[in-house]
Amino acid sequence: MKQPGQEEDRAEHTGPPKEWAAGIPGVAVAMELSLRQMGPARTARTLLRLNQVHGFDCPGCAWPDPQDRAVAEFCENGAKAVAEEATTARADPTFFARHSLADLAERTDHWLGKTGRITHPMHLAPGASHYAPITWEAAFALIAEELHALETPDGAIFYTSGRTSNEAAFAYQLFARALGTNNLPDCSNMCHEASGAALTEVIGIGKGSVSLEDVEQADTILVVGQNPGTNHPRMLTALETAKRAGARIVAVNPLPEAGLMRFKNPQKPSGVVGRGTPLADLFLQVRVNGDLPLFKALNKRLLDAERGAPGTVFDRAFLEEQCVGLPELEAELDALDWPAVEAASGLTRAEIDQARDLIAGGERVIVCWAMGLTQHKNSVATIREIANTLLLTGNIGKPGAGVCPVRGHSNVQGDRTMGIWEQMDDAFLDRLRDVFGFEPPREHGHDTVAAIRAMRDGTAHVFVGMGGNFATATPDTEAVFAALQRTRLTVQVSTKLNRSHVVTGEQALILPCLGRTERDEQAGGEQVVTVEDSMMDVHASRGRLAPASPHLKSETAIVCGLARAALAPVDGLRWQAWEDDYSMLRDRIAEVVPGFEDFNARIEQPGGFTLPHPPRDTRTFATPDQKAHLSVNPLTSVAVPPGRLLLQTLRSHDQYNTTIYALNDRYRGIKAGRRVVMVAPEDLAALGHADGDVVDLVGEHDGVERRCERFRVVSYPTARGCAAAYYPETNALVPLDSVGEGSGTPTSKSIVIRLEPHAER
Ligand code: SF4
Question: Is the pTM of this model over 0.90?
Answer without folding.
Answer: yes
